[in-house]
Amino acid sequence: MALILDVLVQFVQLALVLSLAPLLTGYIRKVKSHLLRRRGPSVLQPYRDLFKLLRKEVVLAENASWVFRVAPYIVFATMLIAAALVPTFATGLVFSPAADLIAIVALLGSARFALALAGLDVGTSFGGIGSSREMMIASLAEPAMLMIVFTLSLLAGSTQLSSVSAFLHGPEVGLRVSLAMALVGLIMVAIAENARIPVDNPATHLELTMIHEAMILEYSGRHLAVIEAAASLKLLLYLSLIGCVFVPWGVATAGQGFGAFAVGLIAYIVKLAVGGFLLAVFETVTAKMRVFRVSDFLGAALMLGFLAALLLFVSQSV
Amino acid sequence: MDRLVLDVAHLFAGGLVLVSFLLLYQDRMFGLLNTFALHALVVSLSVAWQAYIQLAPHLYITAAIALVVKAIIIPVALHRIIVRLGIHRTIETVVGIGQTMLAGIALVALSILVMLPITAEAGTLAREDLAFSLSVILLGLLMMISRRNAVSQVIGFMSIENGLILAATAAKGMPLVVEISVAFSILIALIVIGIFLFRIRERFDTVDVHALERFRGEQL
Amino acid sequence: MGLTILLSCAGILLGASVAAVLGARSKTTTSLVYAIALVASTVALGTACSILLTDPPAIESVQLPIGLPWLGAHFRLDALSGLFLVVTNLGSAIASLYGLGYGQHEQAPGRVLPFYPAFLAAMNLVVLADDAFTFLLTWEFMSLTSWALVMAHHRHVGNAKAGYIYLLMASFGTLSLLLALGLLAGPGGGYGFDAIRSATAAPGVTAAVLALTLIGAGSKAGLVPLHVWLPLAHPAAPSHVSALMSGVMTKVAVYGFVRIVFDLLGAPGWWWGAVVLTLGGVTAVLGVLYALMQHDLKRLLAYHTVENIGIIFIGLGLALAFQANDMRWAAALALTAALFHVFNHSVFKSLLFFGSGAVLTATGERDMERLGGLIHRMPLTAFAFLVGSTAISALPPFNGFVSEWLTFQAILLSPKLPQWLLKFLVPAVGAMLALSAALAAGCFVKAFGVTFLGRSRSSVAQHAKETDVFSLSAMFALALLCLIAGVVPGYFMDALAPVTHQLIGAQLPPQEHLRWLTIVPIAENRSSYNGLLLFVLIATSAWLAAYLIHFWASQQVRRSAAWDCGFPDASPVTQYTADSFAQPIRRVFGTLAFHAREEVHMPPPGDMRPATFHAHLRDLAWDTLYAPVERFVGSAADRLNRVQSWTIRAYLTLVFGAVVVLLAVLAVWH
Amino acid sequence: MTDLGALLAKATLLVPACVAALLALFPDDRLTARLNSLGALVTFLASTGLFFVRPAAGPFLIVDDVNVVFIVLTTFVGFTTSVFSASYIAHELEQGRLTPVYLRFYHAMYQTLMFAMNLALLANNVGLMWVAVELATLTTVLMVGIYRTPAALEAAWKYFILGSVGIALALFGTILVYLAARSVVGEGLDAMAWNVLVKRASAFDPALLNLAFVFLLLGYGTKVGLAPLHAWLPDAHAEGPTPISAVLSGLLLNVALFAVLRFKMVMAANPGALAPGPLMVTLGLISVLFAAFMLYRRHDIKRMFAYSSIEHMGIITFAFGMGGPIANFAGLLHMTFHSLTKSAIFFSVGHIAQVKGTQAMAEIRGLTVSHPVLGWGLVLGVITIVGLPPMGIFMSEFLIITSTFARQPVLAVALALGLLVALGALLLRLNGLAFGEPRGSSARTEASFVPMFAHLSLVLAAGIYLPPALVSWFQYVAGLLG
């Protein structure tokens, strides 16, 4: 009985992230356009786009193989599961033992792997540009992310997200320089991974600066819709990750009953709103950088993560 | 009596060393041949003396071989060869005669030094004789490497052999001496024949094909 | 009993190789030899598995009256050798299955068949050997037979040189192992491993032995900077042999290291761990960077082996460090990670080499720049290769991820280590490991994408045919194994427990009874992973999404030309090539790692000459280590060679000098 | 029983002598080769008899544990080489490189050489041994020069001069030994009988023994071909007929080394004498390193393997110099394996040079393609000689290095490096010779491969399983060597 209830809660979270993701994207766009003194599309626009695309037919390049057609669903599913495993309004959900932080990072890697292959499948130069640059960025972003994971798990003595956020919620954390470094690093990684300014511009189609958009250039119809959904899920995932780790207040733990869940839900939405707003402001005030400056940007993130971990290693003496 | 016997033996041995130095000193071909004849003569005399004092008649054979082959036949044969092949009459030396003599003295000193630790109960042949024969051998080697002519090198080798014969005969009661000396004479005869057959004019190494050897395989 | 079976299997294999010499002409010999090899290694595999799974594992040993007269040949079967026998014979069995099909395309079977079974037998015997002489003999015999297999295609440019460098490096390694074991055996000549185990070595001796073992086993496994032979030799061999060399033989080298350092050498010092860790980390990163720069498919795979060896040695180094500080369970975790990676790498590296072999037979090409679009011509091979690529890139839910995950867990335990050097070193190595994992993903996006996806870059690639059923079955068996080991790793980790128990005296908590087959190496609230659940969830949700969309929304598809930002049908030449794919990473890491230089000749407008682009890479290990040695030997040979053309008088002078010198020595000696 | 043994011993000596005389007189040049092999076979059988029945040690001849293995080995290799030489010489006749007259001469000389070597091995009298070695030198000199090309004459002459000097030094050493013995044993043959010398050596004057050993080592060492006394060896191997190269490398070097060993035993038996070890170790190590580097710049295939012989003689001398039961055992083992392997290599090289019409390695390519049996034979031989398993040489080198490393790490490392350098050179050449696109004529060879593979399979079998009888012999001799 209790098991069924846990599973139910888990699926609630799954549905929640799935439904909230496009909204978050729309909200960020809205804020950005307000900051630019434009009215901008409504926050529900992403939903409309998705449904529009879903109903359109797919135009496939002659050369596209099954990889091209399967990849979107793989990406979407992986992203969905990963997002569902990050605690949003409650920790200690029933599936959370299935994957710890390292596994979640690896899941994102799988999604990227599939998408990069899809970019190469049609055999156009732009797809190649996209994939190779994406892998270059990933080759720096992923270690940086793992270093941050090291930092957190060394602090909490666990790579299990629930334990981490529980620990960081607890009193004995205090204010730590490595935590600050980790936060900065994580934000930088999140920006790079979600193809936001200054690393990449989600709105551009200027050929030579594209990275993520170049990979999915050949996609259309439902495939494109699924990929867009996956992208917004990824953004949501990172925001909720930052939220549950660095501002763990209000997060309920499993089996606390519906009251706690409701509080957690409200806290979660507030966090998303604040995070999205900050992101929009940041993107508005910064300019995109050259592709080969990205390595320096992410190298800095890697260094931050490494220093944070190193500090903890050195401070933890037996 | 015994004293005198040994002294005579020493006299011959020392004389042999002296003649070896004379060989080193020579710078004309024919003079060298004559000196070598003298060398062989001294050897045969000392061998004969040993035969006499050891009451070992078979040693007379060795003495005879030494006398006939090395004191007479070979010098004559070499004389012929020199004339026939028109070999230069002067001896090409690697280093000056003077340095060679000095080196020779050093060698004699070395051989005496080496013989010192030998206990005297080595028998009637005292260290000195052994030292003498050793120095004769070393002087012969020195001659072989300090002369460029084939002939003088052969003569150097034969003086080595004389030194060996001296040691062998003086080693009282050593068996097979005759056989060994015979075997050696064959060796020498072959060498002389070799010089003649191979038409070796000046040096052992006139036809030095390996100076031409160039590496043609794949490099490392 | 088990030992007897294994030895007789090796004997059968040796007999088969002798028979193959006689009947190397006919086609039937090919099938026969591979069939015998398949059967023999399958039997051996079964035996080894049974040994590993019996609890507690029975230790058998036997002494045969061959080899060193007064010593005899000792063979021993324990948990460690059991594990490596499983790895060896699994690889051998599937390679033989593959060979049943692949071997038919062999131009010169006479150069492969006699050596192939002997190679398998040698690898088995190395793992079984229990005295220094037998160990080294079988070890070098393994090198010799694999050398012969590398020389099978000796007419191809570079293969002969590859074989030469390989055999030279192998003998170098064997010599240093020989010195190491000679040190352990001592002047009495106690060559038996049990005698060595019972003896205790002095600290200086242990240091020397560790260094020599690192050189000896490391040169065979491909540790940087001793790796130079590996990317030359492994691709040169026929592909199923490449798979064996890369997937299995390097593991036998790891076995040699583990056997000597963990088993024979006694209690480790903490700095051993530091040394091994550093080597492992450097090897991992450099290996994958080298791999990324290749455009020869098989060479890319070979270089990538170097990376995985680095990962394995990272695990081993951690285990040593923990053991030195008496943190046994942590050491057990690290060792389990390393050994599990040994198994995993042998599986997917063999799979990938099989795939490259299928491509080679279908197109006759190893150069990715002339391949492409093969997924349409050989879909099954492509699928298997894709699974292998995903697994080797350490992506869930496949097996490669699990062992790397365990390694990360071990790294996260290391702050408890007291030594400061380790405190600084371990996170750095962790960063290297993360970096190499990420780069590996990029490397295999390139390998799979350029080879199988896109449009064909040559006519051979256009007219490729799917490979035969034997090869396919071999590949799919391995692909299945990748998935199984990825989703239910608990069983495999439990199978490793006796090994860690034998070597360290501790083992991980048993995994198979946990809820939903989750693996929990340390504690529930610390870390856990469940590949099965992830796999099921992802699969169902992907399928569900696709189903719903096709059912509710749309399912029409229209084929048309690629959009490509509106460029009209560009030729396949405009695709991204292997080199251009690697270019961003070459820009980021290449200048540091191997002095990469890019030369662009762009003719002025109106000039008809084509623009050219050259990327120059240098192997620093070769430049700094091997080239000087080569130069020294060459110059020394040249100098000494003058002696050859001296005159007789000069030679006589040598003799005279020798006499005088010895006499002088004698005079002085008194 | 012992009279039968004496008969066998005499047969071992007399058969070659008589056959030699017979061959010298025998006009027919077709049967001579067969007669030659037949004589060698009979000699071999007679000597194998010595395994089972031994004569009592006489003043001149002796058969004991020390030499019985070597005498059998020598006669065996002599026999196989004669079989090889039959097919080799036939080809030389066709090519017209040898006239029938020279052929008679050649066969007579071959048997004389066999006689000389057997005599040197069986001799109990050190003077007799010296005479035998000198005889062997003379015969080989004549055979090396048999082709009468300038190069051959040059080589023969070089060999002749250096060999004679070496012989002279050895004789002086022998005289000194007699002197040392005389004062203890008394005058006469006993003072030169080897078994007596060993028994009574402890009482000899150490100073004389030391001096004697220096001369004997240098004298016979010249024949062994130790650097820096080696100069005659490469050219003599390269320019003579290949069967003679095989016999030189396989047997004559062994015989000379055997002489050194006998005197080393005398030295070992005398407490006061200086330990011969350091001298031998130094000479051996010099030879190994020198030969290893010399191997790289060779272009003549036979000269290359001659240098490899120098290297291996160095290894063996090194082993005996190190001493101790394991090293001595390994040294004896290595002597045996080397003579078998190197002669096998020269068998294949001989056929290769004949079929390709050149000895220049740059002209010989891809043998395993053009002549599979010959090529793989060469590959097998080289793999054996560089000490790769499962061949026997791996065992001996394993024992030498490990036993040395425990006592003298530096020496062991130096030796190991020497071996590695030599291996590099030989494998480099092997790559060119055996693999790659074939070059040069690919005519069929009517060669007899039996001797080559017989030798190699013997080495292989020994590497895997050594018969206990052999082991006990070697261990006994190793004990004597101290």
Summarize the structure.
The complex is a heterotetramer of chains A (318), B (220), C (670) and D (482). Chain A has 318 residues and is mainly alpha-helical.
Task: Provide a descriptive summary of the structure in words.
The complex is a heterotetramer of chains A (318), B (220), C (670) and D (482). Chain A has one domain. Chain A is 70% helix and 3% strand. Chain A contains eleven helices and three strands, in the order H-H-E-H-E-H-H-H-H-H-H-E-H-H. Chain A has helices at residues 2-35, 45-55, 66-85, 101-121, 125-156, 161-169, 177-193, 212-215, 221-246, 258-285, 294-315; strands spanning 58-61, 90-91, 252-253. Chain A starts with a helix and ends with a helix. Chain B has 220 residues and is mainly α. Chain B has one domain. Chain B contains seven helices and no strands. By secondary structure, chain C is mainly alpha-helical. Chain C has a domain at 620-669. Chain C has helices at 2-22, 27-53, 79-102, 115-128, 132-150, 159-185, 193-198, 203-221, 230-236, 239-264, 270-293, 297-324, 328-363, 374-377, 379-392, 399-413, 420-452, 459-462, 469-487, 489-504, 531-552, 578-594, 620-641, 648-669; strands spanning 60-64, 73-77, 557-560, 597-601, 612-616. Chain C is globular, with a radius of gyration of 27 Å. The mean pLDDT of chain C is 92. Chain D has a domain at 275-482. Chains in contact: A-C, B-C, B-D, C-D.
